[in-house]
Every structure is written in C-alpha cells, then in structure tokens.
Please model this.
Amino acid sequence: MLTFALDTSTQSPSLALTRGERLVGDLWLGPDPGAGRRVLEGTHHLLTAAAVGLQDIERIVVGVGPGGFTGLRIGLATANALGQALGRPVIGASSLEALGVGIAETVRPGAVVVPAHDARRGELFAAAYEVSSDGSLAELIAPMAVPAQALADRLEPVLAAGVVVVAAGTGALVGRSQLHAAGVRIPPERSSAHRLRAAALVVRVDAGAGRAAVPVYARLPDAEVNRLRAARAGV
Model:
C-alpha cells in the first residue's frame, strides 16, 4: 500500500512516501517562517522525485500533535483535503510517538525514551515511553505541555531505579540543562534522533496506534491565552 505521510507539528515539517515497510522517499522543509504553508509545494516535489502521481496514493497518515496551533491546522487541513479529493482514508498518529520511534532505535529494550518538542512559552511538548523487547512503545507519561524542570522531576523515579532515559527533539535541546542535570541522556545536537520522520507515523499506524485525524494541542492556543488574559484584566 502506497502511503503519503506528513507531520507539521514542528518548525521543520516532514513528508514521506512509504510502500509497505519500504521508504519510497522523504523530505524535510527547513525551519523557515511559514514552512508549513509550503507543504503542498513540498508534496509536489516529493511525488515528482518518486515518479508517483496523486492518484497512486492509497492512504494518508498525518501527525496530530501535540504541536503549535497553526502548524497542526495546516497539516491536518492538507491531509483531509487530499483525502477528500482523492477518496482516500486519512489516519492520524501521535507526533510525539513518531519521534519516540526514532529515539527507540538508538537504545536497548527496557530503556525509556522521552520525545520532546519546543512548545515555546517556557514549556516542552513531551511524553515518555518504555521500549519493549519488540521495539514497541509503552506509554509512561502521556503527552503534555510542561516546563523542562517539571519534566525532569516527573522522570526522577524512573532515573532513581537505574533505568536509562534518553530524550531527543527540539524540546530536549531547549531543556538540555535541566534534563541533563537530572541524569537524562541527550544525543549530540546533530543526531538524527532529534528529527521527527513522517515515515515513523506510518510505523505507529501499522502497529495499531492510529487515531482520528483531529489535532491534539495539549494546551490552549496563544490567541485563547491572550483573550483570557485580556478578559481578566478587564480590557
């Protein structure tokens, strides 16, 4: 089955084409302002490079977050529009779980992986998963928006038990000092473990972790926070 996958939960959107377990092609868009708005252009380039037409796509998989409000909306709108136009199913998958799949490839079973995106406002979008012997992920901490120090505190019991904990992603780099001080291992900045691969969304769906293609924000959008702040101030 030819699957088109996309994730726009981070500042560097990721696109991929897979056929079964084989990667046909992938593409990352740079962390430039408005990168999410270039998703359709990137999709065209990816399909052209792979010599694949839109009608050849049999399934669409999209990252549902958590992530920035605007980025998630762009990705989900693109996926759902393509699905409707082509008459193809659209399936959601957790963006953090997809990042966790990549981190899990760098550790041994029994370790805990902590995928984390930079959520701005002094917070990270993060979760924690134990890596099973078959490489599957068992959720220990559900996706949430959390300050780096609070995340380190949540991981303390696991670390105290001597379990190896590895964090990666833009959030891990932003919260590196707090996480590292707690004993969390963080790969070098240029490690591929920090990059979310859209193809990993397909891995999660094929593992039975697919979900409805609706956004997971984990906290209120900036516009709503500002509205509530203004209401409390009587503006």
